Each structure stands twice: as C-alpha cells, then as structure tokens.
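Dear support,

We are seeing what looks like truncated structure output for some complexes. This example has two components. We would appreciate it if you could run it in full and send us the complete token output so we can diff it against ours.
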Amino acid sequence: MIGILTSDEIEKLKSILKLILPTGDREMPEAELILHSIDVTNPNHTKFVELSKVICNKIDLIQIQSEEDLNQFKKANFRDFSVFVNMVLIIYYSNIKVLSKLEVGSVPPFPEGNFVKEGDIYLLEQVFLKGEIYVK
Amino acid sequence: MKIENPDVLIIGAGAAGAAAAWSLSQTSLKIVCLEQGSFMNPEEYPSTKAGWEAMKYDNFNVSPNVRKLPSDYPINDTESPIGIANFNAVGGSTILYSGHFPRFHPSDFKVKELDGVADNWPINYYDLEPYFTLNDKMMGVSGLSGDPAYPTIEGMFQHIPLGEMGEVMAKGFNKLGWHWWPSYSAIITKEYMHRGKCINLGPCNTGCPQGAKSSTDVTYWPLAVKNGVELRTKCRVREITVDNLGKLNGAIYYDEKGNECFQSAKIVIVACNGVGTPRLLLNSKSKYFPEGLANRTGLVGKNLMLHPLGYVEGLFEQDLKSNLGPHGCLMQSQEFYETDKTRGFVRGYTMQLLRGPGPIETVISGVNRRDIPLGPKHHEVVHKTLGRTVGIGIIVEDLPELHNTVSLDLDMTDSNGIPAAKINYVLSENSKKMLAHGIEKSKEVMMAAGAQKTISFGPVRNTGWHLMGTARMGVDPNNSVVNQFGESHEVEGLYLVDSSVFVTSGGVNPASTLQAIALYICDRLKEKFKL
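Here is the complete output from our reference environment:
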C-alpha cells in the first residue's frame, strides 16, 4: 500500500473510514481493511486510490476527528465525497471477510448453492379459479 | 474450417442470430456468422469472484458506453430518458439478461383491431405458437402450466422456487384479488443438455457459470457449430453490400486485427437488435440505396420502442432472504396487461417481481437515498435492509411513434471508425399514464403484502434492454421494412430476424418472442428455397 498512498494519506483515510463505517455492535470488519487489500490491477481499486488522493489533498488530518467534522467536510466537498464514499462501499462490500460476516447465504466464489424453499403453490388456487384473463 | 463461399451470412450471434443459425444448420446450407464479440469464459464470470457485484460497475456494466470493451460500439443516448443496455459477445445480451421469459399475448399482435392504435402484425400468436414451443425446448425454460393470462403453455421444467419472499407477495396479490403466476424463466431447474441446474445464487445478470441460465452461447450455439456453422468472432460488420445491379452480394467487415474483409453471400440475415440492425442498414449506403439499405420508405430506425420501466421497492420487517435465488425470475402479475379504457390509457403492463439486490447495490442505493446512514448506525440498518427488500419492475408497453428513432451519429465512431448509433426518444402521454398507474398499483400490492415502506421511480434510466420496432414487419411495402416472412421488401435475400421487426412492443420482456420470430422466419426461408 505504501508507494500507492503516502503514510500521511493513509492516516487521513483511516480516520475517515473509521467514521464512515465504524465496527459497531454487529462487529463488522473494520473499514480500514480495504487499505490492506488494494489491488492495482483492479479498476475499482485504482479509482479508489485516485479519489482518495483527491480527498486527502483537501483536508488536514486534524480536520476530521469527529462525525461533525466529517459532515462539514462533506457539505463543502459534496460531489467528490459522494463518489469517494460509493467507491469505499463497493470495495468494502466486495471483501470476502465482510461478505462472510453479513450472513447473506453462499459467498462467492460460491462453492455451494443456496436453499430457497419451494413456497406454497396452492396459494395460486384463487388465481386459477378466476379463469382466463387474456384477450383471444 | 473456414467456409469460403457461404450461402448464408448471419450478422450477430445473440438471441436471434443463434436461433437462426441453429434452425438453418438443419439444412444443407453453408452458413457463416460474424460476431463482433467473442465467446465468454464462464469460469471468469463475476460470480466466481468475491468482487462480483463491483464488476457491474465496470466490464459487466449494462451500458456499452461504460464498459467500452473492444467488442462494444458507442451509443449516444443523451437525447433519451432511457439509456441503452446491451452486451456484445457470442450470446449477445442473453449473457446478462435476467432470463425472464414470458411470451407476447395473442392481443399484442392486433392492437389496431382491438384498441384502434398502432398497427396489427401480419402474423399472430398462433402462427408463432409452435415456434414458442420449439424455442422453449431448445433454450430450456422453467415455469408452471395453467396460467389464466395465457393460452396453454406446457413442457417446462419445474418453476423457480418462490421462497419466503414469493409467499409473502403471493398473499399480497391474493388479498387484492389480482393475478400473479410463477415466472416463465429461461433458467433450468434440472440438468439438461450438459448444463448444470440453477443453484439459486442470484447474480444471473453478470453471467451464469453453471450454465443454468439459458444464454445462447450454451443453448443454440454448441449445436449450430456442431452442425457446421462457422462462427467468426471479433468481426465487426461495417456495411452490407450490393453488386453493380443493386443485388445483395455480402458484407464488408473488420476482423480481429482490423483488416477490412469482404464476405460474399447469397442470403444475409441481420440479427443485431433494434439498435444495431438499423445502424448497420443506415450505414449500408450505395448508389442504389443512398439513404441506407432497405430504407426507401425512410422507416429504418423509426418507431423505436424501449419499454419504459417503473420501479417500486418495498422494505419488509421480516428477513425474506430476498437476495437469494434468480434476481429477475420469481413471479409476474398481468392483472393490468389487457386494455381497460377506464384506466385512462390503452394497452397495459406486466409487474415483474424482482428479488432483492446484493450487498453493494443495497447499500449504495440506500446511502444515496439516505435510508442507510453512514456512521455508528450503518451496519445495523444494513442488517435490517439486506434480504428484506422486494422490487417490482413495471414493464410498460410503449406504442410505435415515428419520432422515436435510431440514427447515425457522424460525430461519434467505434474503434473501426463506424458511426455510432444515436437515440432520440420521448415517452408518450399514454406511456406516462401507464407508468404512473403501474407505480401506484405496485405500491398498493407492496402494502397489501405487509411492506413497512415503499420507494418508487420511473422511467428508470439504465434499463433500455428491449430494443424494438426500428425495421418493422408488414404486408404493405409503403409502411414496413420487411414482409411477413422477415424478408426485405426492397432487397431480395436480405432478412431481418431480431426485435427490430416488431410492429408493437407488447408489455413483456421480448426475448422469447423475438427468438420464436427468428425460428418462424427461418422456416419461411426454407420453404421459399425448398430446403
């Protein structure tokens, strides 16, 4: 990661990510994990790095220490910040540790399928009894 | 083995081109198909990777203008509220489609007679019925017989499971006394023709590694190639050509290395969809056809229909596991499909039930709408959203209008210098009323099913998958481009087999119908040439 982002940029990003996606009661993985999984061959990751540099250029580290600070920054840099947040969410919710913790069924690369119950097909009784509804 | 002098040249290897190639491969004809994309490798589909959903924002985006792959051509859709969606590869847009596979209704072929609008088709549902059946068999379709919204449809695999979500929505429809039925799905629920069955992963719209989704690269193409069709990939056709007497004689294309090549053929079949087909015809100018091939009426590129799509999403308290199972294939309602003039519009729409999206789409749309906060409550709200949302896509029948067009954009070109397609499209008042009605009715059924809240909008921007009407079929050469057999009125041997020949758009996804039409036209061609 060093070389792609400077240590100053990394510190700034860590403080922002902690405020955007705190671990919380559900004990989700920390958002800074995305800084440890940057893959320069992945176009989304390179976009994230570019956007991170734009954001980091606009703030001092001491500026972003609280949610209030973040809101102020967001208001002043709405467009850049929104695009940056979208990219953070894309990378965070692509991470296998995050997906596993979400408990959303089988996780890619999907070694197993998902069980989906058949459902009660007799619910169709009243539809069936209505008779034809198409125009011949 | 390279075929030097084919009898038939097919342009485009998607839904229609594949069906046509297979159908004609049953004869002694020598057939070449040119496709600008290449074969997909299912092992590389996004859903084999943890970052599958992120790839929807990049190489597997629905818009060619975002993907910008070598196989793509740009489409200027800035003058349309609906962005064009497609995919260019062997299999075409079936690689990314949801597999929702309903047929047109009998009434869709005679809207002039029934409702006094647009035109009747020169063929009807029952002409196509054997081809619907054949196509279902070739593609592999799941569903349930007995639907009161259709004439009898049989021979399908067991329908896709409804799950908790389906039961909840079914009860909502029943409470209102409205029609619903399990989806007709081009997804197999049983192993078939060396293809794996659906295992309910969900991300059908980024390609199916199991081969359970019936994209034509795994259905028609293996058989057509086995039967001797030569499929040349990474070959982009620039123009269809005529000889010194104005008779059709082949096409000029660019191969993978950018070399300009000529391929002769006695019969040319165009299957490039409702945007690609008029683009190619309009770019095929000659002294005999100065306005583009088969365009003396000026109708090539006119009457574009796109199916404006409304969207309603309901959030439920209980975990419906809605993110599991094929995203676009659950159930549909055609309660409001046929005309009822008391509604204030003619024709109608389908409500297509959509399973909940994956984590990225859920979170990004939630954050952008401010339903999901950033900060301390983020993960808790995500937990209470994911798997608990249900979508309804409202597929509105738009009627043909001359001012909705595909033309050539001479200021924008693809990587071979061929002009891009330009879209000019506006929604009619009839479509707007229908869209508003569909959104209100979808909200009503969401609340009847127990949704805590709903959000809605339409027309949805990047949903222009259904590209129809731009080279319509008809008996009268003065108001149609091809005859009732799919052959150009003006150019003998030129056939169009895709959804560009549609006279009207119906209110359902068009893939099943356009493939049935391709098979129908190929049988007429066989009859004409006594094959």
